[in-house]
Hints:
By secondary structure, the protein is an alpha/beta fold. About 45% of the residues lie in helices and about 20% in strands. It contains 21 helices and 18 strands. Strands 5-6-7-3-8-9 form a six-stranded mixed sheet, sandwiched between helices. A six-stranded mixed sheet has the order 14-15-16-12-17-18, with helices on both faces. Helix 3 runs antiparallel to helix 5 and helix 6 (about 140-150) runs antiparallel to helix 7 (about 170-185).
Amino acid sequence: MILLSCINLCKSYGINTILENITFNIQDGDKIGLVGVNGAGKSTLFKTIVGEIPKDSGDIYIDKYKAIGYMPQNMSLNSEDTIMDEMLKVFSDIINMEKRLRELEILISKKEHIADEKYHNKLLSEYADLLDKFNQSDGYGYKSFIRGVLVGLGFDDGDFDKKINILSGGQKTRIALGKLLLSKPDILLLDEPTNHLDLDAVEWLEDFLKQYKGSVFIISHDRFFLDVITNKTFEMDGKSLEQYNGNYSYFVKEKEVRRQNYLKQYALQQKEIARQEAVIERFRSYNREKSIKQAESREKALDRIERIEKPDNEPIAAKIKFETRSRSGNDVLKVENLSKSFDNKLLFDNIDFEIKRGEKVAIIGPNGTGKTTLFRIIMGLLSQDGGEVLLGRNVNIGYYDQEQSYLDPNKTVIDEVWDSYPDLTQTKLRTILGAFLFSGEDVFKKINLLSGGEKSRVALVKLILSKSNFLLLDEPTNNLDILSKEALENALMNYDGTILTISHDRYFLNRVATKIIYFSGIDGMAEYSGNYSYYLEKKGRPTRFIEEPKAYTTITKTAAKEEKRKLKEQQKIELQKKEAIKSLEEDIEDIEKEIMDLNELLCLEDVYSNPEKSQKVHDQLKELDTKLNQLYDEWEQKL
C-alpha cells in the first residue's frame, strides 16, 4: 500500500534549481535511505514533503489516515519541563484515559450510583469500552516504553528528573528524537538521526528501526547504519532522484554497474550518430537526386533519435594527502595514572596507555566519559588532576576539533588559512584550497557563512599544512559527505605519521584504526589490537550490523566461455561487414569514374557526331547506371 507519493516535484531558489521532477512512492513497511553529496537537496526534499517550505510545482499525496513524523537535522527542545515530563506529553491521550478510568472506578463504587441501575450500567459500559481502548493502546506499558527509549538513547534513571533547559544541544536533540520515536508515526522522516549519538545508542536505534512497523525515510552519511536498516536507497544526484532496490552496499555496486552501462550506451549511440552523419555526407557528395533524397531521409531519421545525454562527471572529492615535516621517535605518547574531575565529580581515573610511531589508535566509548577532555589534556589545553602525559622525542601535534572552535568566524576562508601559514604564496594557497573544493569566489566566503562540511574542509586544510607527525582527530568524519569521508579515510590510511582519533563512525574505524581503546571514564579502559570488527569479536559481539549487499548473479565458466565465443563470432561478422562495405564503396568509386569518363567521351566531336559511337556510349552509361543503383542499394542494406 502506498503511504506517500511525490510526482514531478520541483523547487527552485531564484535561478538555482534544487529539485527537478522528483517522483517516487513510499510503500507501507519501506525502509529507505536517502543519500547524495552535501547540497544535493536532501533536506529540502524532506522540508517540502512536510510543508515546511512550499513546492514550486508537482504533487505530494499522503494517505489521509497516516501520520508523518519529521526529525530535522538540527532540532532541539527548549523547555522548563523535566525529561520525563516532556516524554509523557506523547502519551497525553493515554494518561487522560487512565485518569478517566480512575474516576469511573470511584463513580462505579459509590452506593448511590449502584442503586441507580440505569446510570450504573452506563458507567460500567463506558468503563469497559475505555478499558478496552486503554489496553489496545498499551496503556500499562507506556512508562516502560519511555524508559527503554531514554536508556537506549544514552540517558540513565538519574537523568529523568533533569530539566530540558539545562541539557546540552546534543542531549536536547536526543530527547526530540525520543519523543518522535515514542509517537510511532506511520512514516518516519529522519535527517541525520545518528548525530549526537554514541555507538551504543546508534546500535540501539538500528535495532529499534529494524523492528519498526511503520515506514522509515532516512538521510544519513553513516554507511553502516544505512546498510543495517534500509531495503531501498534513493540517491539525489544533479537535482533528480535515482532509485535502487537494496541497501547502501548494494547501491554502491549497482550504481557503478548502471554508470558503466550508461557510458556504454552513450558511446555506442555517439558512434552510430557519427556513422550515420558520415553516410549522409557521402550521399550528399554524390550530388545525385536519389542520393540527396536518401541523405535527407536519413537526416530526418537521425533527428528523431532520442539522444542519450552526455554522462555527468562523477562528483569531485577533496584531494587529501597528509605529509609529515619530520619523523618522530618510536615512543610517541605515554599516559600514566591520569585522572580528571570537574566540580568534585570524577570523570576518569588511573588511565594508562602508550602509542608507538605509526600506530593508528581509535578511542571509542559512551558520550560524556571524557574522551574530548583527554584530548585537551594531551594538547595542554587542560590540566589533569593527577598522573602524567609524556610526549616522545620530536613529536609535533596536529589537532582537529570537531566543533571547529579554532576557526575565526569573522575571517574569510583564504585569510583563515593564510594567517596561519603566511609564507605560502597566493598561487600555492589557491591551489590547496581548490583541491578542497574552494574555487573562485568561494575562498572569500566568511567562515560563519559556511556549512558544517565546508568548515570541516577548512580545518582539514590547516591540519594538512601543519605537516604534523602526530594527529589528534576528534570526530573527523562528522559533517563530511560520503565522498569526502572516503577521501579522508584513504589519506589517513596512507599517512606515515601516528594517529589518535575519537570516532563513532564504524566504517571509518574499520578502515583506518589499527588499535581500539574502549574508554568508559570512571570504569576505566581496555585495549584491542585491531580494527572495530576485531574489537567486536573480542567483546563477544559479532558484527551483527554488517549485512551483505544483495548478491549479484555470477557467471559460470561454461557461460563465460559461451559468451566469449559469441563475442568472437560477433567481432568476425562485424569485420566481414566492414570489408564488404569497403569493397562495395571501391566498386562504386570505380563505376562512377567509368561514368565520368564516358560522359567526357560524349563531349568529343567524333563521338557525339557519330550516331553509332554515341549510342554505344549511351548503352554503356545506362548499364553502368543500373549497376551503380544496385550497388547503392546493396551498400545501404549493409550499413
